[in-house]
């Protein structure tokens, strides 16, 4: 039976995160990563902390270059996405390694957004989750979010598009496991061959997702797409190849009572 437990930190009072609200708390290797949020005055925070659930000690990681609610952990890296400019988007990455010889640094990838290099348009509060299509092929799924209208008194309106950002493929080295698909990752082998041949591997690039409803759902409430919506619950599916979303509010502020599962193929 599962029970609740209070995790009282053993860290010095000066080495714990400041009080905040709307921070992002993520799981990594049985521990926790805390990022950002708002302080008591409403100012945005960009600090990053690692909490060891065994020793109950906080360790601070380098501050993020931006404040955003679009944060996710894939592999051993913390990713942040910002689409705050109309002509580009940025992906920021921090390797989570407390015992590295050199302190970790943030890497930033700026990707122009135009008809030749498509990418997510300007938005705030876009949802970001890590997914995989198997055999070492990993992505960040970035979807929905909000954008302010053109005039000063405009309300926020909601995006309904979905995008994947292809991450570098997993290591090709064979690892001890009882699962063949976890033992070796063919995607890395394929990408190395493509790279040698001068063929684009698709890494570090955005691709828009085309959502197609199964035939038996096409007439369900005259709706074949989960968006637009905001303030909804979400999580990746157990096989990490899709995402489940539930509830939230519609573009006109009305509560939504349905749920959707989006499976990536």
From TrEMBL:
The entry's keywords: Iron, Repeat
An individual GO BP term: glucosinolate metabolic process
Matching InterPro entries: Gal_Oxase/kelch_b-propeller (IPR011043), Kelch-typ_b-propeller (IPR015915), Kelch_1 (IPR006652)
Presence of keyword Repeat: yes
Region feature (Disordered): 1-21
PANTHER family: KELCH REPEAT PROTEIN (AFU_ORTHOLOGUE AFUA_5G12780) (PTHR47435), TIP ELONGATION ABERRANT PROTEIN 3 (PTHR47435:SF10)
Protein name per its UniProtKB record: Galactose oxidase
Organism: Xylaria bambusicola
């Amino acid at each position: 039976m599962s029970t609740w437990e209070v995790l009282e930190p053993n860290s010095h009072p000066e080495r714990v995160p400041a009080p905040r609200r709307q921070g992002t708390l993520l799981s990594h290797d049985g521990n926790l990563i805390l990022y950002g949020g708002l302080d008591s005055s409403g100012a945005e925070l960009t600090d990053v902390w690692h909490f060891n659930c065994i020793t109950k000690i906080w360790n601070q990681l380098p501050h993020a270059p931006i404040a955003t609610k679009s944060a996710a952990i894939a592999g051993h890296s913390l990713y942040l996405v910002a689409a705050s400019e109309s002509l580009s988007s940025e992906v920021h990455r921090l390797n989570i390694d407390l015992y590295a010889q050199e302190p970790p640094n943030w890497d930033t990838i700026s990707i122009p957004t135009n008809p030749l290099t498509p990418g997510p348009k300007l938005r705030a509060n876009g949802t970001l989750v890590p997914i995989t299509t198997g055999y070492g092929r990993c992505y960040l799924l970035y979807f929905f979010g909000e954008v302010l209208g053109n005039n000063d008194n405009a309300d926020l309106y909601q995006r309904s598009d979905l995008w994947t950002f292809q991450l570098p493929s997993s290591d090709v080295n064979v690892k001890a496991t009882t699962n063949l698909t976890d033992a070796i990752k063919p995607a890395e082998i394929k990408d190395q061959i493509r790279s040698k041949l001068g063929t684009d591997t698709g890494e570090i690039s955005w691709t828009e997702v085309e959502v197609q409803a199964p035939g038996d759902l096409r007439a369900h409430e005259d709706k074949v797409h989960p968006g637009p919506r905001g303030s909804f619950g979400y999580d990746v599916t157990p096989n990490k190849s899709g995402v489940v979303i539930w509830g939230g509010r519609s573009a006109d502020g009305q509560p939504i009572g349905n749920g959707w599962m989006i499976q990536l193929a």
